[in-house]
Amino acid sequence: MRTGEVLLAIVLSALGTLFFLASKLSFLILLAQKPQVPQDQWYAAVGIILVVPEVITLLRIVWSTSFLVRGHISQWPSIKAILLGLFSSLLEMAAVTFFTLEVAPKLPSYIVLPLVNVVLFLQIMLGQWKRNKQKSFLASHDLVPDTSWIKRTLHSIATTFGVCIFVLTACLLVILEITEIPEAVSLVASMTALSVVWCKPIKSFAFNKECPSETARNNTSLVQTIIRIAGIMGFTILIIPMGSNITLEETPGYVLRGLVSLKETESLYTGIIMHCITAFIAYALTRVSAFYTTSRSGIMIPVLLSTVLSTVMFVYNCLDNVINTFHGEACSIQDGGFIVLGFVALIWILPVLILRKKYFMPSDVLFKPEQENFITYNYCSVYFDQHVFLNYNPKTSIEHRMSSQFKRSRVFLCTTMYREADYEMEQLLKSLAKVSKSTKLKLARVYLESHIFLDNGTDGCTLKEFALQLMALVESTLDVGRSEGRIFHTPYGIQISSILPGGMPLFLHLKDPNFVKAKKRWSQVMYFEYILNHRIKVTDALERRSSFDIFQISDKDKLHLITSDSRETELILRLQRNTTVLKVPDDDLEQQSINSKTGSQMSSDQGIDDTCDDISTISSENKDVQRDNDAAPNKEAKQTTHFPKPGFTENISQSEFNIGKLNPAYEPEVNEIMPTPWLSEFMNGSRASSVVPTIREIAPDGSEYLHDGGMFSADGSLYLDMSIEEPEFDDRTYILATDADMHFSDVSVLDLVDTCNEDMRLGAACGRTYPMGKKINPIVWFQKFEYAKDFWMIKSAQNIIGSVMCCPGCFSLYRVKALAGVMNLYSEPTMEAGDVFTKDTGEDRWMCTLMMLRGWKLRYSTFGVNSTYCPDTIEEFIKQRRRWILSDFANSLMVFRNMPQLIRNNGCFSLIYVLYLLQLFFIVFLSPGSTVVMLTVGLEMLIDAPFIILTPIVVVMFIAYGILCVRLSSQSQIQLTKLCMVVLGLSMSCVVVGAAIYVIRDLVIDVMEDNLQPQEHFILVALTGSLFYAAILHPRECYTLVHGLFYVFFFPAMHMLLPIYALCNIVDQTWGTRDNQKAKIPKLLCFPKFRRKKKKKKGMKTSPSTETLDLETEMTPEQLKGMSDEEQTFWNDLVFKLIGKDVNLGLEKDDLASGLNNLRIKALVAVLISNVIWVAVIGYFYLSAVDDKSLNGYAVMSGALYGFSFCIQVVGMTVYRAKDCIHKLGKAIFKMDKPVWITKQDDSHN
Question: Which Pfam families match (predicted)?
């Protein structure tokens, strides 16, 4: 056992013992106080501690479950399960409530908790005599029937003895006059009822057998939790009249008075808070311990120690009254009390001795979710030990295990480029170099490929300036030599490939705008289709060739396979080499044709048999033969060419035809077999070598294929052609989409891969992106804080309550299986004006929405760290946000148009999540009006400017700004926006400073007057404090809070100005950033092999500045080997059907411009009118409903706007951060030695 595992066990044991002990002591003290406090308050207090666990369970289920998903409605429990749940839940609550309210207070408090261990005897008895293991409700290794009947018999005798001791104890309590006979009978009845309803067979039947999926279990839990809450309330009302003079009709009011006056008894109030908090933490620790497979140190030891310590401490208190002086019934030490304690101790320890190793046996799989370790989600805070044991049931499922050392993953890193600066490209290439050399990824068995798609990279055979810049950086940054790259023409432009140091293949795809569509989305379509329908086939073939171990292939072989010939291309090249010896002068062909017609036959020594015995000899001597033929063109030519059949060892003279048939003037006889048309073209060089005939063109009937140690099987049949294979979309193949300026490490890549590998429900996962600027200025600092705030609170919360709405294309891992289901929709053209902002400028958000519509979940990982360059000038920032705001708004509208379908198809869309999204949408849509009111209310508070006068003035200015943006030129709009940003930024900064002064002053006054009570302006404190709380949860990023000062300055610009600016510029379809970027053209470029070609302008001499780099126009056979026929066919089809410049077109430019102009008018009018109405509504509320029109009204309005989403984000962020750190700590401690749990997709889509 490692040191980390030992430390973890010690920490869990210590924490568990501490909180278990605190929970038990607070409960025992509460029981002992019954005769000493007002009865109505005591009953209310006990009712609270009984109902709080059930309320927490109910909130958890409602939080995370969607009850309207298609197919999930039918997964509600059956009538049989509902009736069983109703009966067991009511019986359980009756027993717990009656025992706690009436029986336990009349017993010596120190025997209550160990006495409840009697409920384990029934479970032990059932486990001992359950002979058929497969038909048992029990877990596969929990309480498994012993093979020795003697041992089973002895255990059964011990169990029976324990039950007898319990009955004897009840009788002894009556004999010693500690309790009355009714209480003793009630004790036996209560423990018997709990033994039945808590035993595992009944629970497992209701939650496992009758609920095959997680959704069904959630629905069952919901029904039973509601029944238990109602049962606690109902039985409390029924039981109270039994022990008091209160009638049944008076009981509800009696309990309500107790609740209202609970604060008057400090001991009760403090005890409730302490018990609820410590019990919940103890419950969380049991789940963490099961998650880590450390149930013995994290659950068993705390359970045993806390019970012993609480009993000893309570007895000690009863003897010396150290803590409190309790009544005689609670501290009945004399008159045989120690005899009873001895019997109870025997009842408590006996089940533990019988179970031994089976007592909280740990699971054998790491990171199992709660529903796989425990039967139900709920917990009982008062009788915690017995309930958690009987609820603990770790199941083992082989199909959910994962051992990382036997599984491989495939990651295709795909990047789109446009006009990035050299330092941006260099940052990406350095990241690729590090990833290629990573030992961590190799140990984790992650196969990597990198693909870079550059828009407008080439014009025919001429590389453009940014392509030259990229090539120079590849050569200098990646250490790729001159001879290591392969280059070839493609239907979309030029493709260059090489192997990086470390073994990762790199493909550079330089797009030619004359052939294919520009823009980022179409580059993404290219690499999605390329990976899905070609590269996966190649790597599958690579795995098959290497006996399904892709990592055993050497770099040389990998490069050969990646850029090797297909079987079709290999056939053509072999034919070309072998027939060069037979090329004859054209004037001899006619004579050979005549000889063939007259039946003339040449002697056998003139055939190819004299030259060599097999084709391999010809291949090895190809260069010499070619050189001899070139040197002596008039040499006597051979007249017959022999084409071998699939039997490679056969003499090739068995099949022959006259080479004179290749003469175009040759006239065939009737029914004479002629060579295919391409052969003569290929022989005389009239057919372009880059246009390769397929095998079907060579031999449509499949009868004349070459055999080359891999072309045919042993019996002469052709191996499966890769071109007709269906790609295999396994669960562990991914595309890592990145931007062209990203910096990331192998740890980040591995974190995203592990995240997706461990949860098959995920369609994509994104990492934590850090913005950085080439220049350091306030606009960069603002973006640093904005990114941090959004990742801290929004994405973290979305992880817990549902699904991340967007995995941005800058650094996200997409599962190919998820991509395959949405590519048809994703590659659709723009058919409506509004589609531009969904499909072309918000392509990553659209892709994620399509995935969610298919039922996939998206996730955010804090540890997938990456960084990117952000705009470092105001002008570039404004243009970028114009694009982002429009795309975000358009995709949000699309989400809400499809919300019913999302709710039906995706289990992530729970009720809470849908409400959260709705509020966020309205916050964004109405943010201009809300910001106006915030600003004017704050100014009234600071300078006494009348709200009713100032607000209309700001609204008019707001509308005027929108009108000016429609009429002014682009540059004038930028200047106007800059001016408004400064004015509004200074105003908002003053408002925030003034509000802070008011809050601090009021808090100081309240503290000095000892009158600190909750007030409305505490909402402002909570909203601000949440940011500090988020920073505490992310200690490495606390420095980002300093940048929050600049966030305050830019807040009104982000929520008032830029939304209107974006709407006014809907018609502007430029990218906005990097449009004026200049490339650094290298003076010398060695990779790959280029030929310098000087171009002269008319009337000018050649100078270095007019020199360009061109590809060699003549493709050699060696270059031809780089492009397989399958790949050539793939790109031809893709260009022809989907990405070609003139295919798959959407709206015409004129129609698009007209549609965008109409859309601008409608959207602008709708937003302005809606926000003006919103200002009027909240202004009226502020003026009429709030007496103190300064700070309190401001706080109430902020709480109404942001309160719900704020609470959701804080809770979600806390839960996610805790779960993420626990998971990361587990990986660091256990080093993935144990099998790891995989969440299957079927678990959420059953």
Answer: Chitin_synth_2 (PF03142)
